[in-house]
Amino acid sequence: MIITFKYSILIECNDELMRTLDEQRCIHEAEIERLSRSNQIQCANLDSKLAEAEKVLEELIRDKKNLEATLSKDTNEKVAELSKEISSLNTALEIKSTEIKTLRHSNAKLQLKVEEIPLKDIEISKLKHRVRELKILVDQKTNTEKVLTSKFEELQRSARNQAVISESMLKENDLLRYKIEEMESSTSEGEPNSVKTDSAIKYRSPQSVNICPTRLCQSEQRPTSSTIPLRSSQSRGDVMTRSVISLYLEQGRNRFSKGNIDTIYTPEGTFIAKDRSCSQRLSFDDAHDADDEGTPRLTRANEQSSVSGGNNYHETASRTTGTVIDSGISECLQTTV
């Protein structure tokens, strides 16, 4: 029973396998037919392509022959041209070689000159240092020149101012001297018993006035009196005139009552001058006055008498007294102004 069952199962399996085999055979045959048809189509295509390729090959062979012929011609021409170029290049090479030789020779000369460059650099540095020093000297001299020019201009301005002031002082001094002479003449006329001696004071204006050591230019003349401020100086000059006149009037009254002694009041001090028997008198030394701007000095009477004598003493005393009076009046007026 079991055997029959197994046999029946095997028969069924065998039938099933046979059916599957038939199906696979049919499928394979159909696939083979399809592949054979496609193969035939591909072979036909390849045959057509092969024929076309053969035609192209023949054309390429012909083109090759033509190209070889043209190439041989071009090659010959190019070889000829290249041979010509080679000959020209050889000529140029010879020229360049000669140029290289000359350049090498000049390079050797330049190398010799290059060795001199450090020495030249040292000389250049020295010259630059010298140029800097000269520039510094030029700047210093320029600055000094500017300073000296400014000082010179300042001295010129001060000289002009001093000239104006001295001229105004001289005019006021002459006016005061004239008024004092008139007052003394009136005083001497009012005193008939008084005797005029040789020691009478002679008033005179100084002949020259040294204002500045630098000389003024010819174009820088003394300004006219119209440029002097007379209005402000006249009012102050009148006060000084009255005070100085009163002082000298008082001295003129008391001069003969005090034993013929001259007492002169100046900004430098009081000076006493006696007639003939005086122990001290006033005198001026030109060298000394040039140094200390006209400051009076006292000298011994016997020293002056041994040089000049009695008559010269009176003239010197009167002259120096007048000079001291003039300088005192001018300094008083200058201080007041």
TrEMBL record:
Residues 185-197, 301-321 have a biased composition (Polar residues). Residues 43-92 form a coiled coil. Keywords: Coiled coil. Residues 182-202, 217-236, 286-321 are annotated as: Disordered. It comes from the Eukaryota. This is Uncharacterized protein.
